[in-house]
Structure formats: C-alpha cells, structure tokens
C-alpha cells in the first residue's frame, strides 16, 4: 500500500505543476520561482514572491490538490484538505512570533490551495538534506540507523555503501553555533506556547515542519495532526492511533520522529513532542542523518528503537557538551525523565556568552508588539550592546530586515538610526552599497523628525567614509547645505558638527563659495550662543590654511568681529586664530585691518577678569605683535617720507628708568634701638584700675592728671606744639610719599646710657618720656618700656637672676634712683600700681617705696621741663 501511494505521489509530482493563474492569490502577489518544499510529506511548494500593493517581500505556499485526488476517495480527500486548510487557519489565528507568520490567508483555485507568509529560506529538512549529501574531507561519517533494513546483514552493508544523491531542493546553508542555539530555543518556545497556552500537542515535530526564514529564525509549521489536551494536566496520557501501513502516510505523522509510546501503547502527551525534538537535535549534529529511518515500516521502526540507546551513545560526542545530558533525557523511552519546555531553556547550552545576542534577536522577533518607548530603549541600549556578539552573517540576515521595517516609523526613527550607524561603520564596501545605501537614500529624501535629522548629521562622517564621490556630491552634501539654512537651533548645531567632521570631503570651490557664506549667516542668527560660536571657531581652525586672503577679509574676520567675546575659551581661540593669520604669509594682513578691526575687538578683553594667566598672556602677546607690526610699518613709511623719529627702544628704556618700581634707596638704620609691639592698654586705663583696686593709701591718679605736670606727663589736648619729641626719618627721597617717610613702628625709648640719643641726659639717673611716632595723635601719648640699651646693674632682676626687663622687682633688689621697668605698655606707672596688677596682693616693699618712686618721677619730669630738653 505504501509503495502504491509513493508511486501515485511521484507520478503526480513529476508532472508539470498546475498553473497558478487560476488561483486568486495571483491578484495580490507577484509569484516567482520555486525555492524549496516544506510541510508534512514536503507537500507544500514554496515560491519567492512580493506583494503588489507595497512591494513587501514574502513567500507563497502552494498545495496541489491532485495529490489528494489520486490517493483518497472523495470523502477522505475532503477530510485531508480540511486538515490542510485548518493548519493555515490556526496559524493565522495564533499569530505567535515563533510560529510561521501568515500575511495573506488561504486562496483556493481549481487545482491549488495557496497562502502567503513571511519570507522563507527553506525547511530544515531541505538544509539537512544538503548536509547529508555532501562529503567533508576528514570529517566523521554520520551514525547510521541500526538495523538499516529487515533483510539479511549483507543487504544492510549494500545500503550503507550506496552512493548518496542530492535530493531535489536541497538547500546549501551552513549553520553558525549561535544560529543552532537560537533556532532550537525558538522551537522550544513554540512548543511551550502550544503545550501551556493553547493546551495542544503538535504530534509531528520533525525537520519538515520547521521552517527557516530568510532572517535566520526557525518557525514551527505543520499543525495538521494537532491534538487538544483534555485534562488539566498536560502530562496526562491521551489515546491516539498508532502508525499503520493501512493508512496513507500523508495522513499520519512522520514515523522517523515518532515517540515510542505512540507506536507501542497508542498514547501520547506533551512529552511525546519532546522525544521528537530530541531526534531532531541528533539529526542536526549527525550531518543531517536521523537516528531512525524506518522507511514507513512500523516493524523496522520498533527494531531501530531497541538499538536507539547504542546509536545515541555514538552521536553524543558530536553534540555540544552542555546539551548532551538534555538529549539523553529527551530520548528516554520512558516519558517521565524527559524535560518539559519549561525546563529545557534553563540548561547551560542556552545560557552562554551568546546570551545577550540571543536575547536581542528574540526581542527583534516580537518588536512589532512593543510600544515606542520599549523600542527606543532597545535600539539605543540593548541592541547596540549586543551587536558586537552577533555574527556579521546574522547582522544582515536577521537584524537588518527588522531595522528596515522600523525606519518607516517616525516615532522611533531617531532610535533606529543608532544601530544603523553602527552597522554602517562595521560594514564592508559591498555590504554598505547593497544593504545600507538604498535605505539611506530614501531616508534622506523623506521628511524626518528633528532628532532623526540631528542623528544623521552628527554621524555623517561615518556614512561618507563608505560613499562614492558622486553619492557624496549628489546625495549627502545637499542635505548638509540645507541643514545649515534650517532655523532650528538643534539642526544648526548638528550641521556645524557635521561640517567640521566632513570638511575634508568638501571641495575648495564649494567651501569658498557656499559654506563660508552660510556659516556667516548662522553666526548672525546666533551671536550669543556659545556652543555655535565654538563650533564655528573649530571649523575655521580646520579649514584656515585652505583659504585665500580675500576669504579671510570678506568672511572670516567679519565673522570673528561679530562674535561676542564673553567666554574665556572663546577669547583664547579667537586669539589663536588671529595669531595663525599673522603667521601665515599668504594672508599678509594690513596694518589697517589690525589697527581698525582686530585690536579694537581684543583690547577690551585685557580687563576681562575671567581670563586665566595663560589666556591673558596669549592675548597680550598677540596685541604686542600687532602693535609691533604697526610700529615697524609706520616707521618704515615715515622714514621713506623723510621724517625721523627717535627709536622706540630709547623711550621704553627711559620710561623704565623713571619707574618707581626700580628705585633703590640706601638702608636707613637707627643705632642702638629696640622696637617692641604696641600694647592695647593705655596708661589712663591702668591708672584707673589701680585707683579702684589698689590700696587705700595710694593717691588718685585723676587729680594728678588735671595738674599742669600731669597734663605734661599724660599728654594734653591744649598743647601748642604737638610735633615735639617726634622721631622722623630723614626725607631723603623727594618722590616718596609722606607715609613712606614716617616710621610706622611702636614707641621708642632712648636708653639712658646713649649720650648721643636726642633728649638724653648724660649721666642722668632717670628715664625720659617716651617719644612717639608721628602718626600718633597727642591724645594717644603713652610711655614705652622698651629699653634701648643693654642690661645694666641699675635694672631689676628676677628670681632666677636673669636680666629681663619685664620681671617684678623685690624689696631687696631696689637699687639707686632709676625707674624700674614694669610693663611694656605703661612705663611710668607707680610701683604699687604694678604690684596690684601683677600679684593682686599688697607688698611691703612696694608700699614703703611708693613715696620715693613718685618723687623720682616728679623730679625727673621737672628737670626736663625747666632745662628745655
């Protein structure tokens, strides 16, 4: 029976296929040549096609009804055709990204059934058939099923040695490792959707129903034998009919990938699909050869199942190590150890270094279901990070078609351009010409959002590296020139960035006649925009040497003069440009331009407090250079006219000599002087404290101060000669200020041992009133305890016998009639007052000598008053 069916089928398929003009699908699609076969029994013929309405690429599946007419009676024929129609209808209803995507539903003609779907490369069976037919030198031969037939062993050897012929529609295609990982994961996800979402069992998982699309994705097809799960437990067994030779093979699942429990017990569950998946994995890694090859014979199938474990052990070394354990469990004859679609994606084989790339490609498969925000985040982040891990083959096969579709969406266009620019940078010249440039041409000639235009302009230099010269002049440069005329600030800024990056691609004629004028207009519109000014300066820095003198005078200098120089960096860059113009001889800037344009624009910046030292130095150097040029030019002209001028160096030297900064005065020292810091306490304050806290026997200082001698002693506001006893520095330099001639030192006291000191009394035993600085008013006259002579025997000594002038004398140390040194701020204070301040307790020595100390002070003052010193 099976042989008769095969003959009928071969007889039909060898005839010419039925004409497609009678099928209504021809109204909507332009159908091309047949490229592969797919579906159960490879009954569907796959044609390349494209949609007439929008030119979208697709594939058209065509089924020849005459196959069913020859095999089945009328009633069974309709049952078979209903299954075929139901498969397509169910796929269209599911619209799951891991199932084959239907873009046009079934159309029926007199002899054909057709539908359109996403572009298809081939079925997995077509690709594995090519792998099975080729012989790779040095490669291990595939593991053959055992036994190969039910005949004697000699017939087994003959079949094993028979030459392998390439079957029709075998597709030459090599899988990358990441393609196999991603493809198997897609099939697992498709089965997971069936098992746990729609609660169905596929029952016919085999290479014939796994479709490889032109994007490299694997899609599940062939739902003719699908069974609904009745109970709530998907692992619960269901009764199904075993494979029988009494039924046409196109009406039964593929026997070579059937689970053993179906054939032995007539039962199946979701784990039966997992057994079939395990056989598919072994066929992939066994050079396309299946471990079971029963030739539609159930008895041979049962024999080969008995030897399956042995064959599996021979194949396992060819399977990746991370997948071997899973394959062993998938091909277990007992259904319970087999992993489900929930557990299988968690194995290490799918969790590897390529995982970011796999996740990115998975997201691209469902990109049409995402909202614009999710798409934007994916294109700008996830995809850019994953692209280096995606092989170049899959970049153009899988990623690029998705990007082409998204370019038409204005909401995400700016984000989609990011991976497009990345691919452009990594593409070869042929890849750019074939894939990228046609899309970019359409994009440049169509309306775009501001952000999309900015993205293109900022990355224009990457695109130009791959373009031909005529494409640059005819396609790219007009876009750039139009962007310079745009009134949007973002586009103007991006165009200035672009024109700076692509300046090497602009010819001199366009640069001088078009670009310079447009740059000048852009600045006039944005005189206060620091970023635009900075970009214009950067552009001038790059193209300055390509310009001539006329362009400098007509465009560059007027543009620089129009800039508002407020930012220090801008000022410094303008200075550098001016310096480059002065250095370049071909520009030969005139002194008139320097004097009337360049110097007046830079001179106000000399007082710009924002400039740092280096920037200010550069500014002054360029100003000096221009002034020197003007000076030399003018002197040369005047010399020609016969007018003599003194050398500028002479005047500069004279001015330098007259500067007060370079005057050197001889050192001025007063001999035998000691200077101490001025204290904050005054004699009046100290006297007031003593009058309050001192012993009752001490007289009040206030009454004494009101007397004539007291006024002389403490200072009087009625003094007619306030300049007496002032010590001044000789006025040696007439050009110095008065404050420079006055000593700003504390009070000075003349030592009694110095006969040459002014106001001193040779041989006198009493001290003199302290002289004060000229800046101290008459009301601030104070005494000074600074001793200007070395320590003598008349000074008081402390407990340790030191010669300190600040120690408090004891009664036994009072010698002679000299005034004791007490405090550095109150020189003529009474001994009892000092004792009350320093020790805060009465002292017998000081109280006994109180009267003698006062008389000494009075006698010394009277002597000086009447002697006129």
Automatic annotation (TrEMBL):
Single GO term (MF): protein kinase activity
Domain Protein kinase: 32-350
SUPFAM superfamilies, A to Z: ARM repeat, Protein kinase-like (PK-like)
CDD domains: PK_SCY1_like
Gene3D superfamilies reported for this sequence: Leucine-rich Repeat Variant (1.25.10.10), Phosphorylase Kinase, domain 1 (3.30.200.20), Transferase(Phosphotransferase) domain 1 (1.10.510.10)
Domain of life: Eukaryota
Signal peptide extent: none
Region (Disordered): 681-702, 751-790, 798-817
InterPro entries: ARM-like (IPR011989), ARM-type_fold (IPR016024), CIK-Related_Protein (IPR051177), Kinase-like_dom_sf (IPR011009), Prot_kinase_dom (IPR000719)
Pfam families: Pkinase
PANTHER family noted in UniProt: BLACK MATCH, ISOFORM H, SCY1-RELATED S/T PROTEIN KINASE-LIKE
Family from the record: Belongs to the protein kinase superfamily.
Protein known as: SCY1-like protein 2 isoform X6
Organism for this UniProt entry: Galleria mellonella
């Amino acid at each position: 029976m099976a042989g008769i069916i095969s003959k009928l089928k071969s007889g039909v398929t060898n005839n010419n296929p039925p004409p497609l003009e009678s099928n209504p699908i021809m109204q909507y699609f332009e159908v091309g040549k047949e490229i592969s076969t797919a579906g159960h029994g490879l009954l569907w013929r796959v044609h390349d096609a494209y949609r007439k309405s929008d030119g979208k690429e697709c594939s058209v599946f065509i089924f020849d009804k005459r196959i069913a007419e020859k095999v089945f009676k009328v009633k069974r024929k309709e049952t078979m055709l209903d299954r075929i129609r139901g498969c397509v209808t169910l796929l269209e209803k599911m619209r799951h990204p891991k199932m084959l995507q239907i873009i046009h539903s079934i159309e029926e003609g007199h002899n054909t059934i057709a539908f359109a779907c996403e572009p298809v490369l081939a079925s997995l069976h077509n690709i594995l058939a090519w792998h099975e037919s080729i012989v790779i030198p040095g490669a291990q031969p595939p593991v053959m099923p055992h036994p190969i037939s039910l005949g004697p062993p000699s017939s087994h050897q003959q079949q094993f040695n028979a030459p392998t012929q390439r079957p029709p529609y075998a597709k030459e295609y090599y899988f990358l490792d990441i393609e196999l990982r991603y493809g198997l994961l897609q099939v697992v996800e498709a089965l997971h959707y069936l098992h746990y979402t729609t609660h169905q069992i596929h029952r016919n998982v085999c290479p014939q129903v796994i479709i490889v699309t032109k994007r490299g994705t694997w899609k599940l097809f062939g739902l003719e034998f699908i069974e609904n799960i009745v109970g709530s437990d998907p692992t619960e067994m269901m009764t199904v009919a075993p494979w029988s030779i009494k039924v046409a093979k196109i009406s039964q699942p593929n026997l070579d990938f059937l689970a053993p429990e179906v054939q032995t017990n007539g039962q199946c569950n979701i784990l039966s699909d997992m057994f079939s998946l395990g056989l598919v994995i072994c066929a992939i890694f066994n050079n396309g050869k299946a471990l079971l090859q029963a030739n539609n014979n159930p008895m041979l199938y049962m024999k080969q199942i008995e030897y399956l474990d042995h064959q599996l052990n021979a194949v396992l070394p060819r399977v990746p190590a991370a997948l071997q354990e899973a394959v062993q469990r998938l091909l277990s004859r007992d259904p319970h150890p087999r992993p489900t679609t929930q557990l299988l994606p968690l194995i290490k084989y799918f969790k590897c270094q390529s995982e970011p790339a796999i996740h990115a490609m998975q997201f691209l498969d469902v990109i049409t279901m995402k909202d614009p925000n999710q798409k934007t985040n994916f294109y700008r982040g996830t995809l850019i990070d994953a692209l280096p891990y995606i092989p170049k083959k899959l970049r153009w096969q899988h990623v690029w078609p998705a990007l082409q579709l998204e370019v038409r969406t204005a909401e995400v266009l700016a984000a989609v351009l990011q991976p497009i620019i990345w691919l452009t940078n990594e593409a070869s010249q042929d890849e750019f010409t074939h894939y990228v440039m046609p899309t970019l041409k359409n994009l440049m000639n169509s309306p775009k959002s501001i952000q999309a235009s900015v993205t293109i302009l900022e990355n224009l230099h990457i695109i130009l590296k791959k373009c031909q010269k005529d494409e640059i002049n005819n396609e790219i440069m007009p876009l750039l020139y139009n962007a310079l005329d745009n009134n949007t600030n973002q586009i103007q800024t991006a165009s200035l960035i672009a024109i700076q990056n692509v300046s090497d691609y602009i010819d001199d004629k366009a640069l001088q006649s078009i670009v310079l004028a447009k740059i000048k207009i852009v600045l006039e519109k944005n005189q206060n925009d620091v970023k635009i000014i900075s970009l214009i300066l950067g552009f001038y820095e790059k193209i300055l040497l390509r310009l001539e003198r006329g362009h400098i005078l007509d465009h560059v200098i007027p543009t620089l003069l129009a800039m508002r120089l407020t930012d220090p960096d801008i000022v410094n860059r303008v200075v550098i440009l001016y310096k480059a113009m002065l250095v370049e001889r071909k520009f030969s800037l005139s002194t008139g331009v320097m004097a009337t344009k360049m110097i007046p624009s830079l001179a106000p910046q000399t007082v710009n407090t924002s400039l740092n030292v280096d920037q200010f130095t550069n500014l002054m150097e360029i100003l000096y250079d221009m002034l020197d040029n003007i000076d030399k030019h003018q002197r040369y002209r005047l010399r020609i006219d016969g007018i003599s001028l003194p050398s500028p160096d002479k005047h500069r030297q004279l001015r330098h000599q007259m500067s007060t900064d370079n005057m050197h005065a001889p050192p001025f020292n007063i001999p035998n002087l000691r200077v101490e810091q001025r204290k904050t306490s005054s004699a009046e304050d100290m006297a007031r404290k003593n009058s309050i806290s001192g012993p009752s026997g001490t007289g009040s200082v206030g009454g004494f101060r009101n007397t004539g001698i007291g006024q002389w002693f403490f200072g009087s506001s009625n003094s007619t000669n306030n300049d007496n006893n002032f010590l001044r520095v000789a006025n040696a330099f007439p050009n110095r200020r008065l404050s420079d001639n006055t000593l700003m030192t504390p009070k000075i006291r003349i030592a009694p041992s110095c006969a040459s000191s002014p106001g001193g009394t040779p041989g006198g035993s009493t001290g003199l009133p302290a002289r004060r600085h000229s800046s101290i008013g008459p009301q601030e006259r104070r005494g000074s305890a600074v001793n200007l002579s070395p320590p003598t025997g008349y000074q008081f000594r402390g407990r340790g016998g030191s010669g300190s002038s600040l120690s408090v004398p004891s009664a036994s140390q009072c010698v002679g009639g000299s005034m004791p040194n007490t405090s550095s701020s109150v020189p003529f204070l009474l001994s009892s007052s000092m004792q009350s301040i320093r020790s805060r307790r009465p002292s017998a020595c000081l109280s006994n000598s109180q009267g003698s100390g006062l008389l000494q002070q009075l006698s010394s003052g009277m002597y000086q008053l009447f002697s006129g010193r």
